[in-house]
């Protein structure tokens, strides 16, 4: 316990899923948490996003762990709002030590138009850039920036454009955005290393969250069925990983995030951390 004692951490996409898991785990290890989430749906995204109630409950979980929580409904696509709300939070907590740029969407479907590409790209890449750039004025030596990539995106980067099947424009936007997150974080790490500020990317494989457990994702994994269910998709999920599991849990990713947020990783920067049950080995 106490691996990030008294640090202040920003987590985006914090109302549920991986973001909520990261926020609670870091609170359990001694951090105060700033929790940002959009808390409303995006039209092209075929599964519901978090609600204000989800964000409230995430904040309460942080407080149950004995740490302070500050929640705000913020769209990572809005740089001005990100900068304003983060400045308010830092004024409240007095510092900012760790940034977990986690917010993301995956609007799958071959029937979707280019607006799905735009939404995925804007949330999954521009949103990361906005989060990091809003945070930079508040960071000092010893700070850690952690971005969320995607094993699926790394695999898609090995395929020719348009070869990834029924994912559609939104899926292509997701993959391209996450690939850019990876290269952006590497360049960021090089720029910030002289200031002793670290930047690393975590790449999860299938993760047991609302994004994976959704009708659009079931269709992605079972294109052979007109209306696949979760049970149908569960038969296909394990094909992604070399280890015999359909998915990892959010807590598996939080374990790596906690390490990267802590001083245990004080000289670790510019790296990829693949929490993938061997998916990259397999493919």
TrEMBL record:
Family: Belongs to the short-chain dehydrogenases/reductases (SDR) family.
GO molecular function: oxidoreductase activity, acting on NAD(P)H, oxygen as acceptor
InterPro entries: NAD(P)-bd_dom_sf, SDR_fam, SDR_subfam_1
Organism name: Mycobacterium gallinarum
Alphabetically ordered keywords of this record: NAD, Oxidoreductase
Identification of the protein by name: 3-ketoacyl-ACP reductase
A Pfam family the protein falls into: adh_short_C2
Lineage, top ranks: Bacteria, Bacillati, Actinomycetota, Actinomycetes, Mycobacteriales
Domain of life: Bacteria
Stretches that traverse the bilayer: none
